[in-house]
């Protein structure tokens, strides 16, 4: 991690709002937490150039025009658009000199922030154009109001609204193809097939052939809509079924491995440990100790 670097011209109007938070130990160890939040109406000289800040930043454009340089690419920011960036990386953002930029923004960190950011970054661009009815601008405004009047509820409520904000961002990067369902019909069919047959040995070639789709397209579509490849999805189903057998049966570990479709017990134990962070036997003992 490099040294923090920042150059900026804090050129905003007198009625702009900037709130700096000092998160408590509880917030830092448990919650998502606000570091800074604000509503800026910029003047012509406004810009920020920064790197190596332990923070994530979401900026939503209300009016005017802004410009962002991030990961060696340049972006124009119009009303209804936002950007979401990792401030450890180099960034430069500035207002247009004629169409002065107005935005609401929040710096935050904590809990699973990086995981949300990495999921968002899979879209390939830090900039997102929101639908007209998106709740995201309203959530940022609610965060701003909560942090204006600080009391014992501010940090837990801020965490709640940050989770709402991040969830809405992820949903907005994966819009449904139609109003009826998030998953396309062919992906629903493939997942249903895998749900029924996860204990069988199914090759990618077989699966693609049965559903009349190329295996490369199948891999891309499954990953895009579910977050898993077909193989990862099958492993997830097997591990979930194994948990049920460990919790509610007296079957041996070898028998459970075979029942879930894995003949190699050592491989089963390794897969289980990777995903559950304990061995099957430790999981069974822990579960049976619970009141």
Automatic annotation (TrEMBL):
Residues 188-286 form the HTH araC/xylS-type domain. The keyword Disulfide bond does not apply. Gene3D superfamilies: Homeodomain-like, Regulatory protein AraC. Keywords: DNA-binding, Transcription, Transcription regulation. SUPFAM superfamilies: Homeodomain-like, Regulatory protein AraC. It comes from the Bacteria. This is AraC family transcriptional regulator. The lineage of its organism: Bacteria, Bacillati, Bacillota, Bacilli, Bacillales.
